[in-house]
Amino acid sequence: MAEIYHDCETEYADITGIPAGFRKLDMLTGGFQESAFIVIGARPSVGKTAFALNIAAHASNKDVCLVFSLEMAKKQLLKRATSFLGDISTQKMRNPRKTFEDLSSISRNNVGCLSQFYIKEEYRQYGVGSKLFNMSMKWLKQFDDIEDYFIFVSNGNNSALEFYKRKGFSVSHDILDGFITVLRKNLV
Question: Strand 170-175 and strand 180-186: pairing?
């Protein structure tokens, strides 16, 4: 009882627990308090999961955080968290095959696309990447009606970008909020 009385008399900062990242909520609650169990409930499709993941991401900067959902499977929660933390549009994550943001830039009917593949550092010295690229291009060239080639390179892979530029490709645009760089080579 004395400890509780002492706590009441002690001057604390405005936020005594773990901040949620929402200023008004933190001012009302003082942050998440030790051993608190928080339940978020609302009608379907109003943003409960997005709200909870936002709070969890912010709170995890200070402490361990768990998120349980009775509505979403683990994979869906991971996709949502990846989207939120990676600043990737959830619509683009749902439809990753939608590769061109501006389809008007493609005037031809037949397009060849290659996805950049990761090669471990220790194998690069053997020219595996060059060999696979040459085999892929040879395969694509058997189709006489392909006039545009596209290659998708993950952000930050500058050696791959430079490799493809030396092969005659140029940067066309980014997709997935800059996560992928699209290179293009026009044959006409």
Answer: antiparallel
